[in-house]
């Protein structure tokens, strides 16, 4: 029987041994256990998500609220002639405790005699003082680190850069000044002035998220 003709191959090139392949081969010969060591060193970093979060809303927040106050928030409150504690209670319809960190106090002291009124307000005995154990006195980084670790605070600030950083952290509401009064952002309606009720709270959050009525049968108001 005759031999079957093989189809002619077009554009076939011989494999070239590159310098990278030689280097990789030498490493495998000299250090055969290197890949195993690298796999052992690399650890999976799985971010911790609190169970109290419903989408980007923190359902564990409830009165009495603890409000982390930034430096410029005190200064703008003085300009708008607003009392911190009274204005917060009018905004949230519940008891509020303003919290002043050591970094905020240090920034107010550095601003000098011009901001002595803000420093006197920050030293009010009704306000809660929070100790800082980190280096430096930059209040923005201190506040961001604190709310990332402990999602039990509302951040009161008028700084655009700080608000942009806080919005990236889920479950942290932001208080700011608008039209000579305090306003709140990213806080579920059902948690204001009382405890978070399951059905009403989820419906309020669902309406804000735009996902429709999350509990029970669909309601016409959400469609």
The N- to C-terminal Cα distance equals 79 Å
Structural class: alpha/beta
Count of strand segments: 8
Largest sheet: 6 strands, mixed
What's the helix and strand layout?
Elements: H1 19-30, H2 34-41, E1 53-54, E2 57-58, E3 65-69, H3 71-79, H4 84-92, E4 96-101, H5 102-111, H6 116-122, E5 128-130, H7 139-149, E6 154-156, H8 160-167, E7 174-178, E8 181-185, H9 198-209
Parallel strand pairs: 3-4, 3-6, 4-5, 6-7
Antiparallel strand pairs: 1-2, 7-8
Provide an overview of this structure.
- The structure is a single chain.
- The protein is of the alpha/beta class.
- Helix content is 39%, strand content 14%.
- It has nine helices and eight strands.
- The protein has helices spanning 19-30, 34-41, 71-79, 84-92, 102-111, 116-122, 139-149, 160-167, 198-209, and strands at 53-54, 57-58, 65-69, 96-101, 128-130, 154-156, 174-178, 181-185.
- Strands 5-4-3-6-7-8 form a six-stranded mixed sheet, sandwiched between helices. The chain has a two-stranded antiparallel ribbon with strand order 1-2.
- Helix 5 (102-111) runs antiparallel to helix 6 (116-122).
- The protein is elongated.
- The termini are far apart.
């Amino acid at each position: 029987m005759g031999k079957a003709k093989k189809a002619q191959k077009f554009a076939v090139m011989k494999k070239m041994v590159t310098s990278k392949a030689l280097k990789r081969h030498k490493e495998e010969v000299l250090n055969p256990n290197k890949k195993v060591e690298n796999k052992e060193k690399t650890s999976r970093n799985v971010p911790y998500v609190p169970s109290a979060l419903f989408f980007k809303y923190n359902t564990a927040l409830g009165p009495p609220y603890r409000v982390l106050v930034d430096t410029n928030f005190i200064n703008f409150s003085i300009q708008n002639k607003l009392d911190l504690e009274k204005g917060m209670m009018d905004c949230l319809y519940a008891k509020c405790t303003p919290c002043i960190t050591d970094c905020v106090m240090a920034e107010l002291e550095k601003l000098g005699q011009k901001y002595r009124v803000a420093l006197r307000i920050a030293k009010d005995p009704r306000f809660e003082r929070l100790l800082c154990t980190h280096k430096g006195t930059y209040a923005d980084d201190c506040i961001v680190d604190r709310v990332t670790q402990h999602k039990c605070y509302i951040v009161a600030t008028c700084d655009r850069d700080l608000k942009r950083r806080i919005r990236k952290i889920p479950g942290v509401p932001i208080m700011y000044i608008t039209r000579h009064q305090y306003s709140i952002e990213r806080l579920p309606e059902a948690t204001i002035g009382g405890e978070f009720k399951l059905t009403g709270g989820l419906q309020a959050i669902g309406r804000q998220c735009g996902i429709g009525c999350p509990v029970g049968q669909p309601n016409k108001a959400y469609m």
